[in-house]
TrEMBL record:
InterPro entries: Methyltransf_11, SAM-dependent_MTases_sf
Keyword NAD part of the UniProt annotation: no
Lineage of the organism: Bacteria, Pseudomonadati, Pseudomonadota, Gammaproteobacteria, Enterobacterales
Boundaries of every Methyltransferase type domain copy: 48-141
GO terms assigned for molecular function: S-adenosylmethionine-dependent methyltransferase activity
Organism: Morganella psychrotolerans
Swiss-Prot/TrEMBL keywords: Methyltransferase, S-adenosyl-L-methionine, Transferase
Family matches, as SUPFAM superfamilies: S-adenosyl-L-methionine-dependent methyltransferases (SSF53335)
Keyword S-adenosyl-L-methionine on entry: yes
Protein name: Class I SAM-dependent methyltransferase
Biological processes per GO annotation: methylation
């Protein structure tokens, strides 16, 4: 089972203070870029993986999506989402995305924001999502960028003669990374960018677009905390398509 860190009381309280929790989609600085990757949702069956408070689910309905399903492992998140939603066209489900089961060829658009980097078994999930999409259906997601999940550490590796040579970030070594963010021991999975792309291709997807997102000068002026993201991307956005 995936780590259910969002039901940790300290983590949930800390996450609730973030702009993207308080302000919804408009509180996420990458939202405009994510929105640009989305197809028209009118009349579409839409899934949101890691739906959290349900902000995207509700937005999708304003875009005339016919049916929206939100999936999340966190009971606390789903309770919050349900309390904010008065729409029979939105259904929330508690599920571990590692073992997610979806009906074949029933979904037109699958969306996920900053959830997939927590998962160990991404190949199995991509296979499930490919099968769940209708021909021509789209997968649009964001995840933490591997430059961010493999940061340079304050240690130095050495060459064959024992000399200090270069800073270490272990980009090539994929696997679990532990961070202390709102709570200790938060597990995230580090994967090279090429791994993300190749796993999508191996599952049958066509890559449509990718954005190694960074803030604009205007966004930094409004929120100086984003300045650290202008030189190296913290997240990436990707859209992929199931062929007709």
């Amino acid at each position: 089972m995936s780590q259910n860190i969002y039901d940790d009381p300290d983590f949930f309280t800390g996450y609730a203070s973030l702009p993207r929790s308080v302000e919804g989609l408009n509180g996420a600085p990458e939202w405009a870029a994510m929105q640009a990757l989305l197809p028209s949702l009118a009349g579409k069956s839409v899934i949101d993986l890691g739906c959290g408070y349900g902000w995207f689910c509700r937005w999708a309905r304003t875009q005339l999506a016919s049916q929206v399903s939100g999936f999340d492992l966190s009971e606390k998140m789903l309770i919050k989402a349900a309390s904010m939603t008065q729409d029979s066209g939105i259904l929330y489900h508690r599920a571990d995305l590692e073992t997610l089961s979806l009906p074949a060829a029933q979904s037109d658009v699958i969306y996920s924001s900053l959830a997939l980097h927590y998962l160990r078994d991404i190949p199995a999930l991509f296979t499930t999502l490919f099968r769940a999409l209708t021909p021509g259906g789209m997968l649009i997601f964001s995840a933490e960028h591997p430059i961010y999940t493999a940061p340079v550490v304050q240690a130095w590796s050495t060459d064959s003669e024992g000399n200090r040579a270069w800073p270490v970030n272990q980009y090539q070594q994929e696997g679990v990374r532990i961070s202390n963010w709102f709570a200790d021991g938060v597990e995230k999975q580090h994967r090279k960018l090429s791994t993300w792309i190749n796993l999508l291709i191996a599952s049958g997807f066509e890559i449509v677009a990718m954005d190694e997102w960074g803030p604009s000068a205007e966004q930094i002026a409004e929120n100086p905390a984003l300045d650290e993201e202008k030189e190296r991307p913290m997240i990436f956005l990707l859209s992929a398509r199931k062929p007709d």
